[in-house]
Structures are given as C-alpha cells and as structure tokens.
Amino acid sequence: MVVHFQITLPPYGHAEFSMYPRPDRPEASITVSDGGRHRFLLTSDRVIQDEREPVAVSYPDLLSEYLEQLPAAVAEFESLLRRPAVGPADGATHG
C-alpha cells in the first residue's frame, strides 16, 4: 500500500493522518487545522482512494462505475467529432 500526500499548513497549524491496517478498507484520512489544505492518493493492489472519497474504492467497483459511464462518454465524444471545425472567418491562413 502506498500513500502520497501534500499538506499546506497555516502558521502554527497541525495535521493528523490516520489509516487502519485493513487491506480492503484502510479508511485513510487527513485532518488539517483551520486554513490548511491537503491532497492524498492511496493505492494498493485492491483499492484506491483520494481526498474526495470518504472510503477506499475497490478496483472491481471502480471498473463497474467506469463501464456504467462509458455510453455517455462515447456519445459526448461522438458529438464533439460531429461539430464543424472552427477556423478564421475569412478563410485566411496564418503562417
């Protein structure tokens, strides 16, 4: 299991990192004092979690979510391909 994090603390601030030693539910979290910011990414062979997720997500669940969203993503990509090309109004080229 690997955890990468970045924490910005205010003057005299503090931060706490916690995590359980459970491979399937590590429940990693960072608590930062007022005015601080943080980012983290936890990866393992079973789960992934970042600061936006309250709990780690298993890879099968993540893949299932991606597959559910795939039809909408393909439709959006197709609509972008069908848009006319945007170029200069007078047809002149710049070189």
Descriptive tags:
6 strands, single chain, alpha+beta, 1 helix, 4-stranded antiparallel sheet, two-stranded antiparallel sheet, 95 residues
Task: Describe the protein.
With 95 residues, the protein is an alpha+beta fold. It has one domain. It is built from one helix and six strands, in the order E-E-E-E-E-E-H. The longest helix is centred in the last third of the chain and has 24 residues. The chain is flat and about 55 Å long. The mean pLDDT is 86.
Number of domains: 1
Strand content: 25-35%
On the 0 to 100 scale, the average pLDDT is 86
In whole angstroms, the N-to-C terminal distance is 52 Å
Please write the string of helix (H) and strand (E) elements.
Answer: EEEEEEH
Strand order of the largest sheet: 1-4-5-6
Number of strands: 6
Extract low-pLDDT stretches: none
Q: What is the rounded Rg?
A: 22 Å
Helices and strands in order:
Layout: E1 2-8, E2 15-18, E3 29-32, E4 37-43, E5 47-50, E6 57-58, H1 59-82
Antiparallel strand pairs: 1-4, 2-3, 4-5, 5-6
In short:
By secondary structure, the protein is an alpha+beta fold. 25% of the residues lie in helices and 29% in strands.
